[in-house]
């Protein structure tokens, strides 16, 4: 294959012409085709990748075959981590079938052979995949994309799984979209007229994501926000819209640049009434759920501490899953939070989540979530009802 669409260095030409491994040539073909579609002028070197397309529930046998084929000779060139899988890679008491688990483990093994770190988390920035401001990266999990662009200030498009894997194999990605300064300017100002906390962030993100689509919202909040708040906000923005980047005044690293020399005519205001309306709309059921699933995106150690504080000494009647990465769970184990949660009847669930695991096969009817992204996806991806609320309101005690 020849590339007439963008500039390639002599080494990139050789990669494309097949002088390296077949997987390098295949990956370069994917990157060049993408660059062609989006009118990129060149490829840029990346410092890390985050690869989605892991759950057997979402990629099926075709995905497994593709990955096993790639794994015959593909090896990644930059540090790369993996999105959540369809099961906890270690615990076997959640009820998933042996057949599903077997195929899921084969997918993870294919990635392991390619040297992709099998962290299986959507919060790679909590477990060591942490670029610095200005780095070009190729990440694919939409909530992680929103976080790394907005909170860290690294640069990535919303990559599909194969594109992120191709970028990891070549160490490069086409330079367009959010890799360019013009793609990172704000397109809409959002005045949040009331103080918000907890699940409000997800509700605001859901509402603004619908309004802004694939634009770049610039938030003015009445209160300061923590990184966990921004994690929820970005996940919701990316799920109801296609937001990959947002700015928060006086907080995120590019907020001054985002408005520089710009007249923005598009402005929206969000008040308590709108937030409460969205909170109601996100629930498809009422009452207490039979399973509460927290950790969308995967829980941080601070969030796990807060969950442990809320269930300490209680006996829960509903099942509780706290979804996180194996690395964050290791810290929770050491801090005693896992013990407190499990004594209350909860389970720490690693490597997977309520959306990409086949929870619809486990007999639950109503899932309780405190994440707007999960509330948005559980009905469509799992066919189950959701109640969206703060954790303390979802709990049913024995
Ligand atoms: Fe992560 Fe699953 Fe939510 S991948 S962002 S916990 S839907």
Structural class: alpha/beta
Strand order of the largest sheet: 12-11-10-13-14
Low-confidence runs of at least 5 consecutive residues: none
Percent strand equals: 5-15%
| Distinct ligands | FE3-S4 cluster
Q: Sketch the major β-sheet.
A: 5 strands, parallel
Oligomeric state of the chains present here: single chain
- Number of helical elements: 15
Name the helix and strand elements from N-terminus to C-terminus, one letter apiece: HHEEHEHEHHEEHEHEHEHEHEHHEEHEH
The total count of strands amounts to: 14
Which whole number gives the mean pLDDT?
Answer: 97
Coarse shape: globular
Radius of gyration: 21 Å
**Helical residue percent band:** 40-55%
Could you tell me how far the N terminus lies from the C terminus, measured between alpha carbons in angstroms? Answer: 65 Å
């Amino acid at each position: 294959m020849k590339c007439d669409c963008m500039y390639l260095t002599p080494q990139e030409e050789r990669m494309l012409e097949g002088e390296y491994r077949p997987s390098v040539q295949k990956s370069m073909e994917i990157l060049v085709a993408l660059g062609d579609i989006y009118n990129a002028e060149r490829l840029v070197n990346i410092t890390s990748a985050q690869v989605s397309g892991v759950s057997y529930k979402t990629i099926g046998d075709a995905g497994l075959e593709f990955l096993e084929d790639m794994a015959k000779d593909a090896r990644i060139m930059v540090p790369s981590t993996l999105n959540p899988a369809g099961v906890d890679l270690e615990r076997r008491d959640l009820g998933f079938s042996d057949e599903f688990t077997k195929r899921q483990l084969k997918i993870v093994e294919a990635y392991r052979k390619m040297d992709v770190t099998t962290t299986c988390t959507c919060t790679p920035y909590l477990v060591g995949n942490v670029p610095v401001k200005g780095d070009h990266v190729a990440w694919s999990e939409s909530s992680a994309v929103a976080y790394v662009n907005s909170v860290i200030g690294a640069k990535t498009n919303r990559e599909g799984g194969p594109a992120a894997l191709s970028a990891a194999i070549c160490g490069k990605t086409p330079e367009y979209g959010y890799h360019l300064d013009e793609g990172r300017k704000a397109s809409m100002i959002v005045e949040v007229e009331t103080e918000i906390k907890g699940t409000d962030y997800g509700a605001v993100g859901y509402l603004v994501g619908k309004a802004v689509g694939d634009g770049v919202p610039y938030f003015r909040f009445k209160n300061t926000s923590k990184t966990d708040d921004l994690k929820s906000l970005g996940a919701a923005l990316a799920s109801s819209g296609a937001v990959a980047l947002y700015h928060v005044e006086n907080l995120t690293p590019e907020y001054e640049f985002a408005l520089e020399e710009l007249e923005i005519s598009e402005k929206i205001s969000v008040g308590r009434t709108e937030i409460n309306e969205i909170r109601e709309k996100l629930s498809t059921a009422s009452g207490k759920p039979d399973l509460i699933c927290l950790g969308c995106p995967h829980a941080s150690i601070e969030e796990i501490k807060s969950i442990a504080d809320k269930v300490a000494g209680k006996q829960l009647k509903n099942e509780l899953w706290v979804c996180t990465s194996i690395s964050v769970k290791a810290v929770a184990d050491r801090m005693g939070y896992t013990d407190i949660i499990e004594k209350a009847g909860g389970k720490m669930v690693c490597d997977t989540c309520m959306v990409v695991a086949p929870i619809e096969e486990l007999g639950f009817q109503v899932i309780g979530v405190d994440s707007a992204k999960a509330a948005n996806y559980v009905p469509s991806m799992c066919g189950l009802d959701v109640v969206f609320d703060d954790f303390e309101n979802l709990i049913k005690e024995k």
